[in-house]
Request: fold
Amino acid sequence: MAQVRVRFAPSPTGPLHIGGVRTALYNYLFAKKNDGLFILRIEDTDKARFVEGAEKYIMESLNWCGIIVDEGINEGGDYGPYRQIDRKEIYRQYADILVDSGDAYYAFDTPEQLESLRRKSENAGQTFIYNAATRESLDNSVSIQEAVWKEKLTRGEPYVIRYKMPHNEDIHFDDIIRGNIVVNTSTLDDKVLFKSDGMPTYHLANIVDDHLMKISHVIRGEEWLPSLPLHVMVYRSYGWDPPHFAHLPLLLKPDGKGKLSKRDGDKMGFPVFPLFWPYGETAKGYREEGYYPDAFVNMLALLGWNPGTEQEIFSIKELTEAFSIDRVGKSGSRFDPEKAKWFNHQYLQKRSNNQLALELREFLRAQGYHIDIVRLEVLISLVKERVSFVKDIWEQTDFFFKAPETYDQEVIKKRWKEDSLSLLLELRSLLEKMDDFEAVRTEPVVKKWIMDKGYNTGAIMNVFRLVIVGTLRGPRMFDIISWIGKEETLKRIDKGLSVIGKY
RNA sequence: GGUCCGUUUGUCUAGGGGUCAGGACGGUAGAUUCUCAGUCUACAGACGACGGUUCGAUUCCGUCACGGACUACCA
Reply:
């Protein structure tokens, strides 16, 4: 097989959607699996939709995911430039080739004229198509005299170049994922290849660049499937061998209908973008929400692809070995934010306590706490398996750092009995007498005291937890007080008694 | 409306002419415990519908229904 070269070709029109990231990922995995190269091309032919910062965002996103670009704007390569705006002259030349060969023509119809024709057809319950059936009656170099359109051209009248779609011809083509597809050209229109602003449309730029950049496989979203017959025809007109095509199914909303959009994320509280988008209307990102890039990538890879085994956890390296385009599904995948969290949980469990302590220290610094790394490791060992994100550790352990400010009224009502005060006082003096307080973690002193006195464990431990934590949650009490120390433990008992003791 | 694509539990999916239709997320229950969470165990839950082909269809074919994409001088 010839050298595998794939490209990811986003438009810099805003932040990169996770569907786009998945497309990039599948391209990358396919390339690496087949010892190929991954090319990043920026498709910025639409001046009107260009958004400042989007290009940088795309690159940062890929970088965060661990998707390494082999050829691109920053990386260089033998087939540049890799920004379409810088290839402007190339497209003009290739558009002319098609006009000269008679496969494309000049059209002078204004957008307003076309719009009105479309409306008229719509009112009549039909669809206006600019093709063999209508072009003779429209304003273009096929329908009017050569002398006339040449004069329009020299006068500088605005025009576009349209592809001359043949009449009533069945086009057969293959898609790696969907198999053979047949479309009749009569249902297709004479697509604009070259715009009046001097820039090509996607259809022209895409084909010319893929050919010039020697792209072997085009892996892109399903939204491009309807224009595949056009692309196949244009390749044929140029006499070029088309690349192989694979159209990926779309990512769908977690609920309801349609494809995943930014709105869904806002509504249901999960990010739809890999990174935070800081411009204009801001958007949340997976990175900032605390996801690990390898967990994010793993989750995305399994959304629409599966290895055929029951393995679910894959490093990106393992993915490049296991990936196969044949195992990409045909139908759209509904995005499940819960499963995304599960993946992060799995990856967090695999991290060492030391690594997590380092991450947590950063987080705590922002909260104004400066805690010794060894103490943080102990803390992490207590709550690690119950959290999915580093920020969850804080939510699970805030009471380790600060005494409760309020006490859960429900718990007081249910658990605070007449003897609670005296029991806690007894416990207090027991703890106060301990020389090696940290040992409370493993030494059954308290248990022994409860047994000897014949007390009820629940009756004591629950109110004890109430004064230390403020409510009924958290790890084992002995782990908590061992960590916060004797002084703090006694202080919290005293405070609790003085506040709740009145009841 | 038209063209094309798709349809296995609530979700991601495996499978494939005869299987107990498998796994994961989520859900429920029990166990564990001083609490929550977690963990472990168990349980519930699917081949869109209807016709064919066949000894036999979830798997092949057809029709319908539903879902999706596209239908721009946007990508």
Q: What stands out?
A: Residues 427 and 468 of chain A are 13 Å apart (CA to CA). The mean pLDDT of chain A is 93. The first strand of chain A starts at residue 5 and ends at 8.
